[in-house]
## 1
Amino acid sequence: MKRLALALVATAAVSTPALAQEIVRGGDPKSAIASVVTVPAGYDTIYVSGMTPPVVDAKATGVAKFGDTKTQTIGVIKRLEDALKSQGATLSDVVMMRVLLVGDPAKEGKMDFAGMMEGYKTFFGTAEQPNKPSRITSQVTALVADGMLVEIEVQAARKPKK
């Protein structure tokens, strides 16, 4: 009887973690972001530093050098995608995102949240890539170069490679 009880406890200990092996994303399914993300123990965590947009017109100055907020967001997310790929991860592994937006001169110095969302929604919450991270979006005074409107950093989590 004692062996049976030990066998049942051992089986439960082995099978219980298997039930909690997936990342859980919660919140309103219609929302563009997850209001909460739970990452189980044992996952690899990847931290990607803030990425800024690539130059789209080297002869231009100011915002025109990097494009509008939507263009910059797309460029930044593509850079994040490349960084994640270098670590064996994808955008579907992103669990937390921090977005910094500079006030757009064309929008009276206000951040172009709608433009950022247009770019963001081409990568997250789509039929091809339905996972959405938790996220914060803030307006800042400036970034490292004149004309940059977007900087994004992410944290990603993935199952360890065997």
## 2
Amino acid sequence: MANKGLNAAKKAKFDEFYTQLSDIENELRHYKEHFRGKTVLCNCDDPRVSNFFHYFAYQFEALGLKRLITTCYKNQTPDLFSQHDCERAISLVYDGDKNGNRVPDPEEIGIHELQGDGDFRSAE
């Protein structure tokens, strides 16, 4: 019975899955010491709505991160499940809290348009 939901999704051909923030928190709590001084690169459907970006941005100082970079594939509009209908993509870059409120404010997050579509084989 544990596979009931997966089997139903398979039959319906509905296999979209979005990782829950609580699952990310539960798993990554075991690896916090490994992030100190590191740059984290996440490839997301859309970094603006990604729970991975959310986790790393809000835990940036606690983890001691150097930088957080997220990219997407063929997407420029906020969308949980991109339709990949753009020829170019964006990346978000966060270098930590600048105003001391320990919250990743929009003005602290750089949004950059990529030269290409965000494919992992891209020179970017």
## 3
Amino acid sequence: MNLSSKTRKEVGALGEKVAAEYLRRRGFSIRDRNVARKTGELDLIVEKGDVLHLVEVKTVLADEFPREQDVQDEYDPSLNLHEAKVRKVARTGEWYVLEKRWEGDWQVDGCLVWLRRRDGMARVSYLPQIV
């Protein structure tokens, strides 16, 4: 599936779907997706063990996947996972935790998704506890 004609919003939604499946296959339970509050939006809310994980997903289209040794790459979605964004996710997470009366531990995680433009193949990097 060629992704060249996809909009930014469609690419983001596909990246979130890929990230959710990635986490599910690694033992996380999906509790919620795209929860919006006045402080911001939570892309994925997942649970593993007794910990709630609020996951910010960043997705980019790439012609090729970056090599592991490339420190600074033009396809680096982590550049969009900056301090202000992480703080916003944490504030929104506080609302969510209070609203759902969650009494266990919780944390903010990141998930970076590269989607290869020509065929839709994905590479995922999970970043636990980014706050």
## 4
Amino acid sequence: MLLQWTCKYFDELTPHELYALIHLRNEVFVVEQHCVFQDADNLDQVCYHLMGFHRAELAACTRLVPAGIAYDEISIGRVATSPKYRGHGAGKVLMQKSIEECYRLFGEQDIKIGAQLYLKKFYESFGFVQCSKLYDEDGIDHIKMIKATK
């Protein structure tokens, strides 16, 4: 499946793109994963947002976080693929493009993520390694992972 990719700083998002991001993140994190949490955490405004569209519908997105905001390292967060677009490789392309965009925007440096434990092998396929003990976040087991440049 061919997606059209765009990456924008928060202030560059159109109202329709912002709504699509909120909609997809709510669909995945709140409804599908049954997590009641504050998605609007005041970090979006200092981040870039990678979006993959199929026609006019947002199929996948991530939040690209500069160093010093979530972690000392740059970070990829709010990784979401619409259930409608899973099973076609969209998640793999999303992560590969997210890594590439991080390096383009912030320079090639370590990337740290907070990963749901069940996705450990998925993230390992991109070179991430576990760097923390297991912890609970919103009722879901998580681990921190890092993709080192050296």
